[in-house]
Amino acid sequence: MTPPRRQRRFPALEPPPPGPAKSGEEKNPERLYVVAGAGEDGARAAIDLVTLIVAHADPPPSATPEQAALLRLCTAPLSVAELSAYLNLPFSAMTVLITELLTAELVQARAPVVRKAVPDRSLLEAVMHGLQRL
User: Fold this and answer.
1) What is the DSSP string of the chain?
2) pLDDT tens digits, 37-73
3) pTM of the full predicted structure?
């Protein structure tokens, strides 16, 4: 048995239409597919979050807005994590975009510069002797 439904004397106005998505809400997955594209063979470049990307040329007229923005940002080396944050795109979409630009030879991917974990012993001794003289 269902409970009786009360009817209002004054019907409420229709609820307002949903507004634009606020930051922090889920994004539309169809948009990411449009941005990243279907991919020709599904192969992606072997890049990770710290790989540095450098642009070789200006964006061609046939570039998508995301590719053009990526090429404009990469005049100086930037990591994939930084690009992902600046363009507000997830890492998976960034790898597809960067792979397309790598195959078109518009960008170059570099491994990050790894510095020595332990400084040179002579440098440490010079600092130690300098501190002892104080």
Assistant:
1) -PPPPP--SSPPPPPPPP-PPPTTSPPPHHHHHHHH---SS-------TT-EEEE-SPPPTT--HHHHHHHHHTTS-EEHHHHHHHHT--HHHHHHHHHHHHHTTSEEEEPPPPPPSS--HHHHHHHHHHHHH-
2) 655 556 677 788 889 999 988 888 888 888 899 999 9
3) 0.57
Angle between helix axes 91-103 and 80-87 (nearest 10 degrees) is 110
Q: In whole angstroms, what is the distance from residue 73 CA to residue 55 CA?
A: 8
Give the type of residue at 43: A
CB 81: neighbour CB atoms within 10 A? 14
CA gap 106, 29 in Å, rounded? 27
